[in-house]
Amino acid sequence: MTITDVANAAGVSASTVSYVITGKRTISPATRRRVEETIRALGYRRRGGSPSPRAGVLAVAVPPLGDRQLGMEMEFFSAAAGAARELGFDLLLVTDDEGTSGLHRVTSAALADAVIVLDAGDDDPRVPVLLASGRPAVLVGAPGEHHGLASVTVDFAPAGRACLTHLADLGHRSVAHLGPPATPPGPRLRSLRGFVESFHAAAGERGVKAISRPLPPEARAAEPRAPLSAPTAGDVARCLDELLADGGPTALVVHDEAALPLVMGTLRQRGRQVPGDVSVVAVCSDTVAARQRIRPTAVVLPAAELGVLSVRRAVRQLDGGPAAEPGTVVPAFVTGESTAAAPAVRHG
C-alpha cells in the first residue's frame, strides 16, 4: 500500500495525501476528512527506511476537546511513567486540543518511538496520522477495529449490571443514572454505551424503574470543536431538584467524576442524607473516590492497570513483537459507605 494508492482511492493527488500526513500545508476540512477516511479504510502505513536510533521516549496523547477525567488521567500517567521508567523510557505528553497537529509534530520529527492515545474512538481523527506515521501505537478507549494498531479497551458492561443489581438487592425500585453531558458525542460517551445497555437490561430483569440522563450542561459548547466545560454547582443543583421532586429515585449512579463532589454537596445542602435518604454509586477513579467525605460505593476505573498495560504493549512492538490482540480491562465494583437499604424497605 502506497501514498499513490491512497491518492487514487481518495480522488486526490499524492502530494495532497502527503500534506495531510505531514501537516506541512493547510488542506480543506472536507479533503482532509476524505483522505483520513481512506487511510483508515485501506490501513495504509508509511514505511520507513533504515531503522533509526531510539529516542527512548513514549508519547501519550491526552483526550482532545477538553474531555478530561483528571483523577483517572493522574493515575494513568503515574502508573505509565513507572512502567516506562522500568523499561528505560520517558513519557512525552501531547496536549493539543485539535488532537492531530501535535501527533504530526511528534511523529514527523521522530520525537517519540511509539504513541499511546487516550480515549480513542472508532472514528478518531488521530488514527490516520498514526497509521501513516508507521510508528507503533496503542489506542486506549473504545477504538473498534483499526488495521495494525494495538488497543486496550475498558469493558463497562459488567459494571452497569453490577450497579443496578447492588441497588436492587438493597430494595431500591427507582434508580437514576447520571452520565456525562451528551454533546459533543466524544469517545468517552461511545465507550459508556455498554454500561447503559447492561444497566437498563438488569433493571428490566429486576423490575426496577431506571432513568438515564446526561448531567448539564447538555450542550457544553455551541461549536463542535470548542473545548468542553465541566458542570457547575448550579447546573447540578437544578438537575437534582428536578430529578428528586415529588419523591424521585431513591438511588443515583453518578457517571462523571468531575460532577461527583457537586452531586454529594448538593444533596447535603438540600438536607438529603447519603445513604439514609439517597444511595449514591460513583463511577470514578480511586483518587476521586478517596477525596469524598465518605468512601462511596463505586465502579473504580482501572486507570493504573491501563497505564501499565499500554506502556508494555508499546514497548513490545518496539522490541519486534506484533501488535497483540485487543486487551480488555474490567472495572472493579467496590462497596463503600454511600449505599444502604432503600428508605421504604428500611422503614417498612
Automatic annotation (TrEMBL):
Gene3D superfamilies attached to this UniProt entry: 3.40.50.2300, lambda repressor-like DNA-binding domains
HTH cro/C1-type domain mapped to chain residues: 1-31
Top-level division of the source organism's lineage: Bacteria
GO terms of molecular function: DNA-binding transcription factor activity; transcription cis-regulatory region binding
Residue ranges constituting the HTH lacI-type domain according to the UniProt record: 1-60
SUPFAM superfamilies, A to Z: lambda repressor-like DNA-binding domains, Periplasmic binding protein-like I
UniProt KW keywords: DNA-binding, Transcription, Transcription regulation
Name of the protein: LacI family transcriptional regulator
Natural source organism: Amycolatopsis rifamycinica
